[in-house]
Amino acid sequence: MGDAVKVVNISKKYKGVVALDHVSLTIKKNSIFGLLGSNGAGKSTLLHIIIGLLNPNEGDVYVLDEKINKGFSKNLKNKVAIVPQKLSLYEELTIFENLYFFAKSYGLPRKEVLEKIEGLKNILRLGDLHRKVKNLSGGYQRRTSLAVGLIGSPEILILDEATVGIDLETKKIINELLLSLKEHMTVITTTHSLEEAEAICDYVYFLHKGKKVLEGTLQDIIKKYSAENSGDIHIVFKDEEAAKKIFDLFGETKILRMEGNKLYLVFFSGQYSANVLTNFLNKIKGYEKDIVDISIHKPNLEEIMLQLIKSD
Ligand SMILES: Nc1ncnc2c1ncn2[C@@H]1O[C@H](COP(=O)(O)OP(=O)(O)OP(=O)(O)O)[C@@H](O)[C@H]1O
Ligand SMILES: [Mg+2]
Predict the structure, then answer these.
(1) First vs last Cα of the chain: how many Å apart?
(2) Is position 134 within any domain?
(3) 102 Cα distance to chain centroid
(4) 39 pocket-lining for ligand 1 (C-beta < 6 Å)
(5) Both 285 and 209 in a single domain?
């Protein structure tokens, strides 16, 4: 009870293609939920099912505690907004006209509409509102699309690849806005960019070929995989020759790699690593003056995801 979205064991096939395979998830209110996955993972399909545009072949979906059954009720229509992957603005109309049109479709009074448009103009730095959408750059079309999504003050805002192919400034504006929004709404966003997920998401759900690979809070995922799956120690030598000297002391080994004047030592948590590390430190004794820098590198989300897909 009280969750923004609950998806229970849904599957979706398109003529033989399995787009979603028994997916379950819960999205908490007032959080930023990141749906991650590469092309074709099933992200858009899942979002379209959540907003009642598509029906799953099996499983149930609840949005704000209401079971979705063949489309949205009128009650939900005003509470959930999607900013689609393929923009759906009226290209021949201006930014203002687009915002005005969508605001009126929510039945808002004119005065309130004008105030909201002014507010969104400032937050999203939309500039001159009387420019036609078709003449806007990709970044401004994205900003306008997001403004349209927000004009009805939804309780749940769904963004399908909202920051793909846009400039850094727009990306920054959108990400800052999303972070400030979660006080009042739940944000569901899809992205290929793990870096972006790390910057804004409270919780991530990683889909690969229609199946869940991983879910959790970012802190938990990174903690879990850094502990289990190790990290690297990077040792930088003054030159390649010095690095090679140490490298040769070890012979064939999978835990030590050399690139130019750098050695990479993989470590895992536990006794094994303790032995490896002590052994390594013993061997490099006397060579300290050849070492310029030592640093520890823990895997980031991107590396964790790549590892998981690779072992698939
Ligand atoms: N209307 C459709 N008819 C047939 N197959 C489809 C249809 N829509 C999606 N698919 C297939 O379903 C799978 C999931 O597609 P979906 O668009 O949900 O992935 P996605 O994660 O959103 O990908 P992207 O990152 O490219 O947007 C893919 O294999 C895709 O080819
Ligand atoms: Mg998609």
Answers:
(1) 34
(2) yes
(3) 27
(4) yes
(5) no
Phi, psi of 126 (to 5 degrees): -80, -15
Atom of ligand 1 nearest to the CA of 38: 25
Q: Which are the contacts of 231, defined by CB distance < 8 A and separation ≥ 6?
A: 266, 267, 296, 297, 298, 299
- Closest-lying ligand 1 atom to the alpha carbon of residue 207: 21
Phi, psi (deg, nearest 5) at residue 218: -60, -40
**Ligand showing the shortest atom-to-Cα distance for residue 23:** 1
pLDDT of 192 strictly over 90: no
Q: Is the CB of 43 under 6 A from ligand 1?
A: yes
Residue at 222 is within a domain: no
User: Are 239 and 145 members of one domain?
Assistant: no
Question: Per the structure, how many domains does the chain have?
Answer: 2
Q: Are residues 201 and 276 in the same domain?
A: no
Gap between the Cα atoms of 183 and 187, Å rounded: 10
pTM exceeds 0.70: yes
Is the CB of 23 inside a 6 Å radius of any atom of ligand 1?
A: no
Q: Is the beta carbon of 164 within 6 A of some atom in ligand 1?
A: no
pLDDT digits (tens, 9 = 90+) for 53-84: 899 999 999 999 999 987 788 888 889 999 98
261, 200: one domain: no
Asked, for residue 48, whether it belongs to a domain, the answer is yes
* Domain housing 248: 230-310
Q: Is residue 196 helix, strand or coil?
A: helix
Cβ of residue 151 lying under 6 Å from some atom of ligand 1? no
Q: Which residue is listed with tokens 């009128």?
A: 74
